[in-house]
Each structure stands twice: as structure tokens, then as C-alpha cells.
Write a structure and sequence with these properties.
This protein is mainly alpha-helical. The protein is built from 15 helices and no strands. The longest helix has 31 residues.
Length: 330
């Protein structure tokens, strides 16, 4: 191959540069001759090999050019030999057939999606209708409204995805519904802060702190805040929930909220204490099994995690967590 012949020529020029050092000329002239011929050989090698490795991307071409030139220039002779041997190994010795083992791995049950419209108008059925561009727009709009009627992260994310739809009417409606969802919760927080400032009795302050704790959590739960803003809402929710507890609110629902907030923050021990306190306050065990299982998973106590799932056989049939239970229970 021509590139291989030219690479060998570059190597021969490199040997000439080395021989120039051992001549009878003055040392300064010998060094100048070596650097000149050596640099020319390295430059030719870099110009020759760069197009073979990166044909289109200019940034990659530039980096490869400096890579080949640097290896050849700063490691005389052996640098070029190493590049030549590496290219030969890459070209001829590393050839192998296509790897097919991954094509036989089945998708986990909670990642399988249906190719056609779902039979119902839950989140899955509604989203499959929105994605199907060959069905009437009116049906797609109804599906979008069905999604907006739900709550939680899935509904918000589906609205965000729908805001990038190619249909302008679908796109505008999705953006409007998402924006309205955020404004409703923001107005609730604003009203709660105003009411807390006017509260005159401990009971009134306790109720407003409780409402603010849940309102801030709704911003996170509905995926209306990301990154630092989501962390801020989690801290605000935890702060107001703690204030409500200090003012005498020992409701089990508030304790579960505190447990979920600590789980969100990655603090396992205080989350476990809050969930345990909620159980002592009389909350039904089935309502906190997912959080107990998550606590066991964070502690890497997988045997305990499976024990929690065994206490509620119907959990495997519930949406959301059902496929997770089926995965762990086989």
C-alpha cells in the first residue's frame, strides 16, 4: 500500500538524520542538520497519516497531526517505529468479526415500549397517541390533555417532550400546559408565604408550614425544577416540614414526606428514622414499602429489600413500581 511505502521512506529519512550526528562536521552544524532532517521526516509522517485516521472532523485532524508529529519528533527513530508497528497491528492483526452477543440480551420489563397506540388513556397510552403522527390531531390533543391531568415526574417530562413536537398546535399546547402547572404551584407557595407572615397563632403557623412543605415538594415531584433549583426546593420543603413538626404536627404523612426528602438528599439514616416514626404513628405499611425497599437498597441489604417486597404480593401489579418488584423477585 502506498501509505506504508511512504511511511517507510519517512523512517529512512529519519535514519539519515541520525547518521548526520555521527559525521565529521562541527557539532553545532551536526545538531542543526539532525533537527532539520528529523523535523522534516516527522512533518511528512504527520501529514501522511493524519488523513488516514480522520477524514472529516477538522478538530480531530488537528489533534492527530500534533499527536503524530509530537511522538515522532520527541522520540527519535523509536517514535516512528512505534507508530508504524501500531498501525500495522491495527490494520491487520486486530480484525475480528462482528460481536453479536449483545443482540440476544432481552430488555428489562420496565424498558419495553409498545410500538402502537396503547389501549387506554393513561400516560403510556396517551404518549403513544401523541407520538403517532398518522392519527388525527384532535385525538393527539385529547391525549395531551389526558397527560396534563396527571401528576408526577412522568407527566411533566412527557409535556416537555411534547413541546418539541413537529405540529405547532401540539407544541404550543404542551408548553402552555407545562407552564400552567408550574404557575399553579408557584402561586400556592406565594400565598402560603404571605399567610405564614400573617399567622398569629402557633396552630396557624403549623398549618402554613405544612402546606409550604408539600408545595415545595410538589415542584420537585413534578420535575419542575432541576439541579441547584431542585436542591433549593428540597431544602425549603425540609425546613418547613421540620418547623411544622416543632409546632406539634406529628402527622404520619408529614413524616413520610420528611423521609422522602432525606432520601432525595441521599441521607439514609435520617430518612430511615422518619419512615420508622411514620409507621409508629400508624401509617399503613403498604404505603411505605417502596421507601423501605429503597432504604434497604441504599444500604445494599438486598435480602431485606426482597423481604419488604414479599410482604405485599400485589405490589408487582401496581404501575411504576410493579416492574421493579418483578425484576427483584424474578
Amino acid at each position: 500500500m502506498i501509505w506504508l511505502k511512504l511511511t517507510v521512506y519517512c523512517l529512512l529519512v529519519e535514519l539519515i538524520a541520525v547518521l548526520a550526528i555521527f559525521g565529521s562536521k562541527p557539532e553545532a552544524l551536526q545538531l542543526l542538520l539532525f533537527l532539520s532532517i528529523h523535523g522534516l521526516a516527522c512533518l511528512a509522517l504527520a501529514v501522511l497519516l493524519t488523513p488516514l485516521m480522520a477524514e472529516q472532523d477538522p478538530v480531530t485532524r488537528r489533534r492527530l497531526w500534533f499527536f503524530f508529529f509530537g511522538i515522532g519528533f520527541f522520540i527519535p527513530v523509536f517514535g516512528m517505529l512505534g507508530i508504524l508497528i501500531s498501525l500495522l497491528c491495527y490494520k491487520y492483526l486486530l480484525k475480528s468479526g462482528g460481536r453479536t452477543e449483545f443482540s440476544t440480551v432481552a430488555l428489562p420489563p420496565f424498558m419495553v415500549e409498545s410500538g402502537g397506540p396503547g389501549p387506554g388513556m393513561g400516560e403510556g397510552g396517551a404518549w403513544s397517541r401523541i407520538k403517532a403522527v398518522d392519527i388525527p390531531r384532535q385525538l393527539r390533543l385529547k391525549a395531551l390533555l389526558a397527560i396534563s391531568a396527571g401528576s408526577g415526574q412522568n407527566a411533566s417530562r412527557l409535556l416537555q417532550l411534547a413541546s418539541g413536537d413537529s405540529d405547532e398546535e401540539i407544541r404550543l399546547l404542551a408548553f402552555n400546559l407545562y407552564d400552567r402547572r408550574e404557575k399553579v404551584i408557584s402561586n400556592s407557595i406565594t400565598q402560603g408565604l404571605l399567610a405564614l407572615g400573617k399567622a398569629a397563632t402557633p396552630d396557624e403557623k403549623r398549618d402554613q408550614c405544612r402546606n409550604l412543605a408539600f408545595s415545595y415538594w410538589e415542584m420537585v415531584y413534578n420535575d419542575l425544577a432541576r439541579d441547584e433549583l431542585a436542591d433549593f426546593f428540597v431544602n425549603q420543603s425540609l425546613s418547613y416540614a421540620s418547623q411544622a413538626m416543632e409546632l406539634g404536627d406529628q402527622d404520619s404523612g408529614l413524616l413520610v414526606l420528611i423521609g422522602r426528602l432525606y432520601l432525595r438528599k441521599g441521607e439514609v439514616e435520617p430518612a430511615g428514622r422518619a419512615i420508622t416514626a411514620a409507621l409508629e404513628q400508624g401509617i399503613h405499611r403498604d404505603k411505605v414499602i417502596p421507601y423501605l425497599a429503597e432504604l434497604a437498597y441504599r444500604r445494599r441489604d438486598f435480602a431485606q429489600l426482597k423481604d419488604y417486597f414479599r410482604t405485599d404480593p400485589l405490589l408487582r401489579h401496581k404501575p411504576g413500581i410493579g416492574p421493579v418488584v418483578q425484576f427483584w423477585m424474578g
